[in-house]
Fold this sequence. Notes:
Blueprint: E1 2-6, H1 15-24, E2 29-33, H2 51-63, E3 71-72, H3 82-101, E4 106-109, H4 120-140, E5 144-147, H5 158-168, E6 173-177, H6 179-184, H7 189-195, E7 200-205, E8 209-211, E9 214-216, H8 227-236, E10 242-245, H9 258-271
Parallel strand pairs: 1-2, 1-10, 2-3, 3-4, 4-5, 5-6, 6-7, 7-10
Antiparallel strand pairs: 8-9
Helix pairs in contact: 1-2, 3-4, 7-8
Amino acid sequence: xxxxxxxxxxxxxxxxxxxxxxxxxxxxxxxxxxxxxxxxxxxxxxxxxxxxxxxxxxxxxxxxxxxxxxxxxxxxxxxxxxxxxxxxxxxxxxxxxxxxxxxxxxxxxxxxxxxxxxxxxxxxxxxxxxxxxxxxxxxxxxxxxxxxxxxxxxxxxxxxxxxxxxxxxxxxxxxxxxxxxxxxxxxxxxxxxxxxxxxxxxxxxxxxxxxxxxxxxxxxxxxxxxxxxxxxxxxxxxxxxxxxxxxxxxxxxxxxxxxxxxxxxxxxxxxxxx
Length: 274
């Protein structure tokens, strides 16, 4: 397994500068933020950028000695209405084109949640159709897709991931495994990663404590996740990819400087033998 970093916390830097900082801190991988969701972390790649611009940025990342294991292309498909879903698909399709152009063969996105007044059961067929469209487009580009259902979103449970994968077969839906969301909904992340083993395509490293809706994502080591056991489980299932640091503690009151997060998180991974 390799030490990776997610570019969100370095969104104040142009991507080449972010890559230099990540490489300098001792990481080998940098996952790129290409999200279309509202966030205080602006994406490093977007549909407004030309494919040539994206290729130049990817070349700068690789020139710093870093691999690009993943690109996030999140969009909340069910925020308002069908028009919003179509805008989401437009964003995702554009980012799939850019991922293919820069040689990234894995992307992940989130499920989102129903808008006020929408019923989750009634929304499921729409979500399935949306994912079929995304997976078909991704497959044409040789890209695998992982779903990361956040604790407040639809379908974060292990059982639901398995049900969705079955419903979408023979199209292949993977899991972007983030242990924090499983703990926040009351599932054991270690048991979850073992059960989801065939579907795990990428792993985020983020801590959590409490249970949804009374939960937080604190700095690494200050939550409830047993990371040594999680790493052991990942080794047992044969996972050899990146362990990508995703830091969201600043949303919950821990206001650490991005560079401190970068170096502190690398030390945390070293202590885990990564």
